[in-house]
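Quiz preparation item.
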């Protein structure tokens, strides 16, 4: 999907949110915003919102010298999610439809998104999402496709959130599927990396691969051969979060998108209202440049 003019405003907001994590010095805040604004003045909208926003994070790191501004927040989110995991797992296992409950639990984890800067309360918000239907819920379509040997590539999104992805991965494995989980090759915002996958125990469940880059979502110009092969050969791709939706929704794949629509641009593309949560099956007929 292509960016829209309002995405530029969002990029500036993301830059400010990020630099504020690093320093209280308003002179540096101004320097970062000026640099990002200059970059945005030259940007075109024929690219995904994910690619449009990546320079903001690069500029924050370049100006402040902090390579991973979200490092401490990611560790805290992992710890908070792991503390809740036994309770949520028990709820999934006791549900009349454990697969559907696991989908909602994984979807609820998508509230953990630090770049956009929306407020969230993990315990409260997960309870709310698990207690009501999703705006779009294609779990039954997924159920019909699952079977022994079904090859699934699961595109992870954020640290913390990845702990709740475990619950859905466990149900997919119970259905006989073969799951590979993908994470980023380096830090970007609070996206999950291999270190996060190890921390929450994902590597104990399934093979975990890196995309080949530290881009938001998937940068198709810079993915590893291993990742691309897994994507192209998967029977099903489960794609978590905004960045993965923005960069994979136009690709040719049998994809299920699991996310909370946190901005009007993504909400419109997904066909829902702002703040609604979806598990949306979409088989794209072509692809756009990322």
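Solution:
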């Amino acid at each position: 999907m292509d960016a829209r003019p309002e995405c530029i405003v969002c990029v500036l907001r993301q830059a400010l949110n990020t630099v504020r994590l690093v320093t209280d010095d308003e002179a540096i805040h101004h320097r970062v915003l000026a640099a990002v604004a200059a970059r945005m003045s030259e940007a075109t909208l024929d690219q995904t919102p994910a690619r449009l926003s990546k320079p903001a994070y690069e500029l924050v790191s370049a100006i402040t010298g902090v390579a991973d501004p979200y490092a401490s927040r990611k560790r805290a989110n992992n710890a908070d999610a792991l503390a809740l995991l036994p309770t949520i797992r028990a709820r999934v296992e006791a549900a009349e439809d454990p697969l559907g409950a696991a989908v909602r639990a994984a979807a609820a984890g998508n509230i953990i998104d630090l770049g956009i800067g929306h407020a969230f309360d993990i315990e409260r918000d997960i309870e709310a999402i698990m207690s009501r239907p999703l705006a779009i819920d294609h779990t039954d379509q997924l159920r019909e496709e699952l079977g022994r040997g079904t090859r699934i590539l699961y595109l992870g999104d954020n640290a913390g959130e990845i702990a709740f992805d475990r619950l859905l991965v466990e149900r997919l494995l119970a259905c006989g599927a073969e799951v590979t989980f993908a994470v980023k090759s380096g830090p970007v915002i609070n996206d999950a990396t291999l270190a996060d996958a190890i921390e929450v125990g994902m590597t104990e469940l399934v093979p975990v691969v890196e995309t080949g880059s530290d881009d938001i979502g998937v940068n198709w110009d810079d993915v590893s051969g291993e990742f691309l092969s897994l994507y192209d050969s998967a029977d099903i791709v489960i794609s978590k979060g905004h960045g993965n939706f923005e960069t994979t929704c136009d690709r040719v794949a049998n994809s299920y998108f699991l996310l909370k629509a946190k901005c009007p641009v993504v909400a419109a593309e997904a066909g829902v209202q702002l703040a609604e949560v979806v598990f949306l099956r979409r088989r794209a007929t072509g692809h756009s440049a990322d």
